[in-house]
């Protein structure tokens, strides 16, 4: 042991003698500007290596080694010159790595190494707060630093977590040689310690500074192809936990009203997937009780207020599925030209068969036949004798083709037919046919043929009073025929 200590002193003595022989004094050191320096201001070692064999070496004996390795002015405090360290290795390592290991050993001996651009101060660890400690700002990282034993003060700016809340989590991780301060106004955490400890704290704070799972966020999605109101309705049906959508509430009876959400959460597959559901819960669709969705029809955009996880899923659904251009054959309407039918009547017939596309709920007007109910939209153009049909799926238009082809046929029923008469009077025959074919309760009379004297001959005196002739006029036979069913 004595021999090893003697060798350590002899090595330090030879190192100091070499430095003095080379003219290395405090004044020339500060004046040398041509030396290469690293980002920490240390002298570049140019690939030099060394081994560490310090066994209970005092701090004052390490000063020449630190000066030689860094090229900086070393100022040891009188209270630490007699502190000793032990650090030994058995292979050649780079000089800068050896220096950082020595600084770590000093920190273990409760010696604070405060390194600036030009000086290195060796101070008792208990009095480090009184020294001019370098400050690392919130925009700088310590993860790339290699001087793990150096003392610095790091400011951590929090983006999501509260500084007061984070303080309670970090307090148990702060050792005796470190200090932590919280600034609630700026939501920042300030920690004083060696670089190795600051790196650990930076990783821990980055892991804890995450958005709150229950916090609400707002995001607006601008749509290029989809309709904003329809997308807003889809979002409510899929991601609202209370099932506020009218269509969702009408189609479900009891239990969870949102069957769409149940489908996306993978709850319809039976018990064989129960084990997989627990492992893939993080990838399942999230529901929100606080979901709010508004549609801006003028800008064709949708604004969503919900938890960040829900917004991420809405964004993915809009970008990948909903807001996509439609194929050309799905947006081109089918125009039918009618030659023998009224477009308005054909439209009414088709709407009675298939209904109209429903926007809110399943009202009676939107009901139709089977699976094709509400799949078509009809518009009649009476002036040109055409009808326009738009289908949600072009594959369903074959049904409309067959119906219109069967309806738009020439018909003989209801068309007039001319009959040429040779002997009968057309006017009298028409009156007779109308009277014979009239519906029950319809007033239809047949005029009698004129026989005998004309109407001017009468047995009534022209000088008779009106009252005397009234009864005779009622009893006189009229010029029309009276049938037995009319009596």
| CATH fold field value of the largest domain | Phage tail protein beta-alpha-beta fold
Strand content: 15-25%
Q: Please outline the major beta sheet.
A: 4 strands, mixed
CATH top level class name of the largest domain: Alpha Beta
Distance N terminus to C terminus?
Answer: 152 Å
Q: Based on the structure given, which CATH architecture of the largest domain is correct? A: 3-Layer(bab) Sandwich
Relative helix content: 25-40%
Strand order of the largest sheet: 8-9-11-10
How many β-strand stretches? 19
Low-confidence stretches: 1-7, 11-32, 244-283, 360-365, 470-477
User: Number of helical segments?
Assistant: 16
| Cα gyration radius (Å) | 51 Å
Sheet/helix structural class: alpha+beta
Shape designation: rod-shaped
Kindly report the average pLDDT value.
76
Number of domains: 4
Q: Multimeric state of these chains?
A: single chain
Task: Give an overview of the whole structure.
- The protein has 487 residues and is of the alpha+beta class.
- It folds into four domains: 2-129, Phage tail protein beta-alpha-beta fold; 135-208, Ribosomal Protein S8, Chain: A, domain 1 (2-Layer Sandwich), CATH 3.30.1370.120; 216-269 and 282-322, Ribosomal Protein S8, Chain: A, domain 1; 331-407, Ribosomal Protein S8, Chain: A, domain 1 (2-Layer Sandwich).
- It is built from 16 helices and 19 strands.
- The strands form seven sheets. Strands 8-9-11-10 form a four-stranded mixed β-sheet, covered by helices on one side.
- The longest helix is centred in the first third of the chain and has 20 residues, at 2-21.
- The protein starts with a helix and ends in a 6-residue tail after the last strand.
- Residues 1-7, 11-32, 244-283, 360-365 and 470-477 have low confidence and may be disordered.
């Amino acid at each position: 042991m004595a021999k090893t200590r003697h060798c350590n002193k002899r090595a330090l003595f030879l190192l100091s003698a070499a430095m003095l022989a080379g003219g290395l004094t405090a004044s020339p050191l500060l004046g040398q500007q041509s030396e290469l320096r690293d980002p920490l201001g240390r002298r570049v070692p140019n690939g030099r290596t060394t081994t560490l064999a310090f066994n209970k070496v005092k701090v004052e004996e390490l000063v020449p080694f630190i000066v030689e390795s860094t090229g900086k002015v070393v100022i040891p405090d009188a209270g630490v010159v007699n502190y000793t360290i032990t650090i030994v290795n058995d292979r050649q390592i780079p000089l800068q790595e050896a220096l950082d290991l020595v600084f770590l050993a000093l920190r273990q001996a409760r010696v604070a190494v405060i390194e600036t651009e030009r000086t290195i101060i060796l101070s008792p660890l208990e009095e480090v707060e009184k020294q001019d400690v370098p400050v690392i700002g919130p925009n700088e990282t310590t993860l790339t630093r290699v001087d793990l034993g150096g003392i610095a003060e790091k400011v951590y700016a929090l983006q999501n977590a509260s500084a007061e809340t984070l303080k309670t989590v970090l307090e148990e991780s702060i050792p005796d040689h470190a200090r932590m301060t919280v600034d609630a106004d700026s939501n920042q955490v300030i920690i004083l310690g060696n670089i190795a400890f600051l790196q650990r704290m930076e990783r821990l704070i980055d892991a804890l500074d995450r958005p709150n799972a229950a916090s609400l966020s707002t995001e607006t999605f601008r749509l290029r192809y989809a309709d904003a109101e329809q997308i807003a309705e889809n979002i409510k049906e899929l991601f609202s936990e209370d099932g506020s959508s009218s269509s969702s509430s009408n189609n479900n009876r009891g239990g969870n009203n949102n069957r769409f959400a149940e489908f996306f959460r993978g709850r319809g597959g039976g018990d064989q997937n129960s084990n997989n559901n627990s492992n893939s819960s993080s990838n399942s669709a999230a529901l929100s009780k606080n979901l709010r969705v508004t549609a801006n029809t003028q800008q064709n955009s949708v604004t969503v207020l919900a938890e960040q996880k829900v917004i991420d899923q809405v964004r993915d659904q809009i970008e990948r599925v909903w807001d996509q251009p439609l194929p050309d054959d799905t947006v081109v309407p089918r125009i039918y030209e009618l030659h023998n039918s009224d477009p308005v009547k054909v439209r009414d017939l088709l709407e009675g068969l298939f209904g109209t596309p429903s926007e809110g709920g399943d009202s009676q007007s939107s009901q139709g036949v089977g699976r094709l109910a509400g799949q078509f939209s009809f518009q009649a153009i009476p002036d040109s004798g055409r009808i326009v049909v738009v289908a949600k799926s072009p594959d369903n238009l074959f049904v409309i083709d067959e119906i219109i082809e069967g309806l738009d046929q020439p018909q003989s029923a209801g068309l007039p037919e001319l009959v040429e008469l040779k002997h009968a009077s057309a006017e009298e025959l028409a009156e007779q046919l109308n009277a014979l074919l009239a519906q029950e309760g319809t007033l239809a009379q047949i005029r009698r043929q004129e026989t005998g004297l004309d109407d001017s001959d009468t047995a009534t005196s022209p000088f008779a009073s009106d009252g005397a002739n009234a009864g005779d006029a009622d009893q006189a036979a009229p010029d029309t025929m009276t049938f037995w069913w009319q009596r």
